[in-house]
Input
Amino acid sequence: MTKPTIVNLVATANLEQPVDLMKLHSMQHVTYDQELYGGRVAYLKTPNMHGKVSIFFTGKLISIGTTSSKQAEEDLSTTAQLLVERRLIKPVVVKANTRNIVALLQFQGPSLWMNQQQTSMQSTNQSNSQERFSNEMSPRRPILSSIQEK
Output
């Protein structure tokens, strides 16, 4: 069996202070639409980041699209650092909390369970075919005559 591959990790952090998202509007690599979600969230994705970070006006951050806890923590720290540099928040230590992990696992070759299932399905298909054949060969009464007899 092969090792699972993480394809997405979701992590959160709390800046413990509000963020004025209107001031993020002009920042490069920030997506902010006041109409979207009532202006409660902005998104940051710089070329150096592994994923994307949602920044909420409450100071909560959500990192998505990374493939490790280390990457998520780096993205969350980068976000906090950029907010500090723009004087939108006071310096803070970011603690990333992993919330969800999506991983893929690929099996190599057919497993014993798969072979048993295929054998079982083949037996069922053979018996169903035999049953259909015998039903097709059996004499049938015309439907119309059955209705007229009643």
Observations:
- The two ends are 65 Å apart (CA to CA).
